[in-house]
Amino acid sequence: MDFAFLSYYFLYVLSLLQPMMMTPFSRIEKLLLQYCSSPSPLLLALSGGADSLYLFYALLFFRKQHAVIFHVAHVDHRWRKESQDEARALQQLALQYQ
Known about the structure:
Layout: H1 3-21, H2 24-35, E1 42-45, H3 50-66, E2 70-73, H4 83-96
Helix pairs in contact: 2-3
C-alpha cells in the first residue's frame, strides 16, 4: 500500500467518525445554524434538569455568537414539595441573564 492510499483512507474514516466526535455544544450550534436562521425567538422549556440547564447556558453563549433570541418557560405542576423552590430558583436564573 502506498502512503497516498492510506492518507485518503484515514481521511475517509475520520469523515465517518466526525458526527460521533462532535460535542453536545457543537451539535447544538449546528442545529441552531441549520434550523434557526430566522430572527424569530426560540422558547426553551427549562425543567431545571441537567439537559435543559446545559441547553440554557449554550443558548446564552450562542446569543452573543449568532444573535439567538430565546425566552424561557417553566411549568410548576406542584407535584413535589420542593417544586416551588425550584421554580423560584429557575426564575431568578432567567432574570439574572435577561
